[in-house]
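task queued by scheduler; priority normal; single chain, no ligands, no partner chains; default sampling; output format set to structure tokens
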Amino acid sequence: MHSILITQRSAIPDHAATFVCNWDHGVMAKLNPFRRHPPVAKLTTLVVRPRAVPNAPHLARLHAGQTTILAAIGKAGVRRVKREGDGGTPVGRFGLMAVLFRPDRVRRMWLAAGSRQLDPGMGWGDDATSSLYNRPAPAGSPFSHERLWRDDGVYDVVIPTTHNQRPRIRGAGSAIFLHLARPGYLPTEGCVAISLADLRRLLPRLGRDVRLIIAR
């Protein structure tokens, strides 16, 4: 994530965010990435709580109904007031957007209909001075951005959340995703990370209006 001092936390007009990755917020909002799975009891919430482990603020548990999953969160733990680049995971209630995946590493057959393939040209803006802040941005953009096509595998399957989406506040945090954990559940920059096996079990159980709740 891009660290920058913002003197005024102003909202960014949505009309300024014209996406150039051949996917836009309208398309993402219309996608229902959790449909067409065999009928199962659907979850309406995923609750993330820090584990309160000494010297490990990044360790958390994700509660999905009666199932508890080990998760990694930001290296600074949870934050009520999120700032760009602070390493914290924002407290709040967020929706899940489109399921994105790397087709060269993940077989689509177990993903939900409506999932979208990543390609090397996709990125996500983290420059709070840009109109593409916390929006899809092309890799190679002159503004700071995070590449979604990564070598380390954490974005082999990645689900953007609605954190700081409407309205988008400059400097209030970007690219808060649900993605795959690194070996050993190393800390994230603010995202929630779980294992591929756990995400694979969760996806069929997520309802259309599921909410990711990050608690203190």
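post-processing summary
- The chain has one domain: 11-214.
- The first strand starts at residue 11 and ends at 12.
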